[in-house]
């Protein structure tokens, strides 16, 4: 088979690309070189026996975590971009920098819902309340609650959860601490919690991008390009990452173990479809929407009176013109 034929077979089609809700969660890589060859994207590592290759199912992954010592080539990144897979760069000492790739085929329907809710203070507060109730119960937020009151209520509940988890796992003293400059001095619970939360941010980031939303337009968090990602990731910490971190209080490598367990929990909890559904629910609580399709290429023109109009149409004749002469 020729090289061109192999490349055509490896190229993704719309029918081949899975929805993000059906994706595998994430792949963590460390000390490898990610390249594109004639049959796909693979991770290479040099060994005494030569070059070992592991092929990466990019079209089926929500995100790829690029760990320490990992490099990636431009052709490999181009393939990952076509597949709509998010890349998350993982730094040393628990410091993470995030990079997202948005495929051009995304629609703006969910982005428009997000922007309209974000730009209106009343609707923005309503979204924040829905997020709080998604975490702590449908009747947990008092009527007429303010955002400051929500922050206070959340803080009380999280502190209470820390105390419960510390008692359950026999941790004598615990204080949440995230200090990248003193990473090695932190206790295993803090290391596990920071590692698990970072992976959670990457997974949520991939889901946000797959729906076409903006990671920067948060409803509780603000001032960072990851504000909305932090909003959504907070929905799952009390249920998943906090109990997991306390369970690893005696682990010798809590970060690595947290990543492994989070991957298992994502599968057990079926979290990817849940993240997609939760984003849709907080932005559009009516529930009348169809599942977002990241591969739709519908394009229209905006009109405040007539509504969406078809693109690719010459509207010059509407102004009395009869010819192009």
TrEMBL record:
It comes from the Bacteria. GO terms for biological process: defense response to virus; maintenance of CRISPR repeat elements. InterPro entries: Cas1, Cas1_I-E, CRISPR-assoc_Cas1, CRISPR-assoc_Cas1_C, CRISPR-assoc_Cas1_ECOLI, CRISPR-assoc_Cas1_N. It is an enzyme of class 3 (hydrolase). Signal peptide: none annotated. Pfam families: Cas_Cas1 (PF01867). Its EC number is 3.1.-.-. Its cofactor is Mg(2+); Mn(2+). Keywords: Antiviral defense, DNA-binding, Endonuclease, Hydrolase, Magnesium, Manganese, Metal-binding, Nuclease. GO terms for molecular function: DNA binding; DNA endonuclease activity; hydrolase activity; metal ion binding. Homodimer, forms a heterotetramer with a Cas2 homodimer. Belongs to the CRISPR-associated endonuclease Cas1 family. CRISPR (clustered regularly interspaced short palindromic repeat), is an adaptive immune system that provides protection against mobile genetic elements (viruses, transposable elements and conjugative plasmids). CRISPR clusters contain spacers, sequences complementary to antecedent mobile elements, and target invading nucleic acids. CRISPR clusters are transcribed and processed into CRISPR RNA (crRNA). Acts as a dsDNA endonuclease. Involved in the integration of spacer DNA into the CRISPR cassette. This is CRISPR-associated endonuclease Cas1. It comes from Nonomuraea dietziae.
């Amino acid at each position: 088979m020729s090289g061109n034929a192999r490349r055509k077979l490896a190229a993704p089609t719309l029918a081949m690309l899975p929805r993000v809700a059906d994706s595998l969660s994430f792949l963590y890589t460390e000390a490898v070189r990610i390249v594109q060859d004639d049959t796909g994207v693979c991770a290479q590592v040099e060994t005494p026996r030569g070059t070992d290759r592991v092929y990466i199912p990019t079209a089926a992954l929500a995100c790829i975590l690029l760990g320490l010592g990992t490099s990636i080539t431009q052709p490999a990144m181009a393939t990952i971009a076509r597949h709509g897979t998010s890349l998350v760069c993982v730094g040393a000492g628990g410091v993470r920098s995030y990079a997202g790739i948005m495929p051009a085929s995304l629609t703006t329907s969910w982005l428009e819902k997000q922007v309209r809710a974000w730009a209106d203070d009343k609707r923005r507060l309503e979204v924040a309340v829905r997020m709080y109730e998604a975490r702590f119960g449908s009747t947990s937020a008092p009527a007429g609650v303010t955002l400051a009151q929500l922050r206070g209520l959340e803080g009380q509940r999280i502190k209470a959860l820390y105390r419960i988890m510390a008692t359950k796992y026999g941790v004598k003293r615990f204080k949440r601490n995230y200090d990248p400059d003193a990473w090695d001095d932190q206790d295993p619970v803090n290391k596990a919690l920071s590692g698990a939360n970072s992976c959670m941010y990457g997974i949520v980031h991939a889901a946000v991008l797959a729906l076409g939303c903006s990671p920067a337009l948060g409803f509780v968090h603000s001032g960072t390009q990851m504000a909305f990602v932090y909003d959504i990731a907070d929905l799952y910490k009390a249920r998943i990452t906090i109990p997991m971190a306390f369970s690893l209080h005696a682990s010798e490598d809590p970060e690595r173990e947290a990543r492994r367990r989070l991957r298992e929990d994502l599968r057990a909890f079926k979290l990817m479809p849940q993240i997609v559904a939760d984003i849709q629910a907080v932005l559009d609580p009516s529930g009348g929407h169809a599942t977002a399709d990241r591969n739709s290429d519908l394009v229209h023109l905006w009109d405040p009176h007539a509504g969406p109009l078809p693109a690719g149409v010459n509207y010059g004749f509407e102004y009395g013109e009869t010819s192009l002469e």
